[in-house]
Design goal:
Layout: H1 4-14, E1 19-23, H2 28-39, E2 42-45, H3 49-63, E3 67-71, H4 75-79, H5 81-89, E4 94-100, H6 117-121, E5 127-130, H7 137-148, E6 155-160, H8 161-164, H9 186-198, E7 202-206, H10 213-226, E8 229-232, E9 247-250, H11 258-261, E10 266-270, E11 288-292, E12 305-308, H12 311-318, H13 329-342, H14 352-362, E13 368-371, H15 376-383, E14 392-394, H16 404-414, E15 420-425, H17 426-431, H18 435-442, E16 446-452, H19 457-465, H20 480-486, E17 490-494, H21 500-509, E18 514-519, H22 525-533
Parallel strand pairs: 1-2, 1-3, 3-4, 4-6, 5-6, 7-8, 7-10, 8-9, 10-11, 11-12, 13-14, 13-15, 15-16, 16-18, 17-18
Helix pairs in contact: 1-2, 1-7, 3-5, 3-16, 10-12, 14-15, 14-21
């Protein structure tokens, strides 16, 4: 009979999981790695457990199969928390597998490396539990079902060395999985249709749930049928191609979007998770219609009507008529251009706008960007021409640094046919520098662009706006090109604007990972942030 470790791995494989990430700590980790090898799940040793969790989450987002990460007992489990917090806040179905003691200290077990790991993960997962062979196959399947039930999210499994190698019991009792939300009834559909019929300037705010293929296609149909303006959150960038005349730009809940959303007479929240909004007051008075796959999102204001269920099915249920007049195309163009101009960065040296434009010109068609949190992200989301869902990937609900490079590795493994470029600041790069060695070992053809301004620029700006002295936000400029070469990747350093395109073209031609370290002028960030957030 299959062991507990073999049962878990077989269940993951059956659902499409093809990679597992992490740092083994001995014990049950070794049982899991061997079981994975036998069925064809490749184990990827990451530089840290946090990076491994990001990689697992990104593969889950891209493939739709559960992501998998393992870690050792104690410090290994603790080190994965930030990556699992990403999966929890940003709806990635990840299985976190941690080694644990056979007996806890209260039962006479060792105090060494012992703490309640499940209690640590419980606030950031959909379930955190210890599995034993006696729990049976049903418990394993139920945990995976829970991770894959909307809203998607991570689950945590503690497993001791002894239990991992024991034969699994048949049957067993699984978790209670929440029932899917009932499909909207005729009365609800009628109420939404009535609101749509009265609207002349509707705005659709599309969020992370809109990234599925069917959901993105239905978004385009809905926007056309209503004559609506569309704005997307950072995670939803690309669900409507940037060349679409109805797409205004990114939505964050800040001041820059008021020129569009403030004119709306109806706001449609389409797959919109409010975790992506910046913490500013909601000032719009137009009624809201929520179209969500999962119930119980705490929206910024009470919706006048809700359609809960698969997004494409909800749009189809509306059975919309011929396209409405909606927003005049000229008005949409003026709003879009005005927003872009307001967020343009000026500077004497190399600006982030210039860097993004250079990546767009030199990168292969269909390139995906993975982006770190930081001031550089504003130019990316305003200027990068995404044409499909997941064209840009960023941590937005958690907004963590140190994401871009591990995410690029996850992308390159999950979809090797899609070129990928990680865009990070110097601070974020320092947090995951070891993953350059991971990318080099795996010979992954990815490009890492470092916006190197020797500061935590977004925090630096906030400190300046509060008229406080510069403390704790600046540091000497690091030579990331040299560091890249030491870790097995290619490294290029760019100190002049006129050299960026030539260097990027070379980097995108290389067969393995390349780092392009660009000395950046941060002078324009302050005005850009003010234009964006007020």
């Amino acid at each position: 009979m299959a062991t507990l470790a073999e049962t878990i791995i077989a269940a993951l494989h059956a659902r499409g999981t093809r990679h597992m990430f992490g740092v083994p700590g001995g014990g049950s980790s070794l049982d899991l790695i061997e079981a994975a090898r036998i069925v064809g799940i490749e184990f990827i040793l990451s530089g840290s457990e946090t990076s491994g969790a990001f990689m697992a989450a990104v593969t889950a987002e891209l493939t739709g199969a559960p992501g998998a990460i393992l870690a050792g007992v104690g410090p290994g489990a603790a080190a994965a928390v930030n990556g699992i917090a990403y999966a929890g806040l940003e709806c990635a179905p990840v299985v976190m597998l941690t080694d644990c003691k056979d007996r806890p200290p209260e039962d006479g077990g060792s105090l060494h490396q012992s703490f309640d790991q499940a209690a640590m993960f419980r606030p950031i997962t959909k379930a955190a539990t210890r599995l034993r062979p006696s729990d049976g196959h049903a418990a394993v399947e139920a945990l995976l079902d829970l991770a894959m039930a909307p809203p998607l999210g991570p689950v945590h499994v503690d497993m001791s060395t002894r239990d991992a190698s024991q034969s699994m019991a048949e049957g067993g009792v699984g978790l209670a999985i929440p029932s899917p939300a009932p499909r909207p009834g005729a009365e609800t559909v009628s109420a939404v249709r009535s609101l749509l019929a009265k609207s002349r300037r509707p705005v659709i705010l599309a969020g992370l749930e809109a990234r599925g293929e069917a959901a993105a296609r239905s978004l385009a149909e809905l926007a056309t049928a209503l004559g609506a303006a569309v704005m997307t959150t950072y995670k939803a960038k690309g669900v409507l191609p940037d060349g679409d005349e109805r797409l205004i730009g990114p939505f964050t809940g800040a001041a820059a979007e008021a020129a569009c959303v403030g004119q709306a007479d109806l706001i449609i929240l389409y797959g919109f998770d409010p975790i992506e909004m910046v913490p500013l007051p909601w000032t719009y008075t137009a009624p809201l219609v929520e179209v969500s796959a999962a119930p119980n999102y705490r929206q910024p204001a009470e919706p006048a009507a809700r359609l809960i269920g698969p997004l494409a099915e909800s749009v189809a249920a509306l059975d919309l008529d011929a396209p409405a007049d909606g927003w005049p195309t000229a008005d949409l163009g003026r709003v879009k251009n005005g927003m872009r101009e307001a967020l343009t960065v000026d500077g004497a040296g190399t600006t982030m706008d210039a860097v993004v434009d250079a990546i767009a010109v030199t990168s292969p068609d269909g390139t995906r960007l993975t982006v770190d949190a930081g001031a550089h992200m504003f130019s990316v989301f305003q200027r990068w021409p995404a044409s499909s869902p997941f064209g840009v990937m960023k941590s937005n609900g958690l907004s963590t640094m140190g994401f871009a490079l591990p995410a690029a590795i996850g992308s390159a493994l999950a979809e090797p046919e899609t070129p990928v470029c990680a865009v990070t600041g110097d601070g974020g790069m320092m947090m995951c520098l070891a993953e350059l060695a991971t990318a080099a070992r795996l010979e992954l053809p990815l490009v890492v662009v470092v916006a190197n301004d020797a500061a935590l620029s977004l925090i630096d700006i906030k400190q300046q706006r509060q008229q406080r002295p510069s403390v704790g936000v600046r540091y000497p400029r690091v030579d990331f090109a040299q560091a890249a070469r030491g870790l097995g990747a290619r490294g290029y350093r760019v100190d002049a604007p006129d050299k960026i395109e030539a260097v990027l073209r070379q980097a995108f031609r290389e067969p393995g990972p390349s780092v392009v370290d660009i000395a950046l002028d941060p002078a324009g960030y302050g005005g850009q942030l003010e234009a964006l957030r007020g």
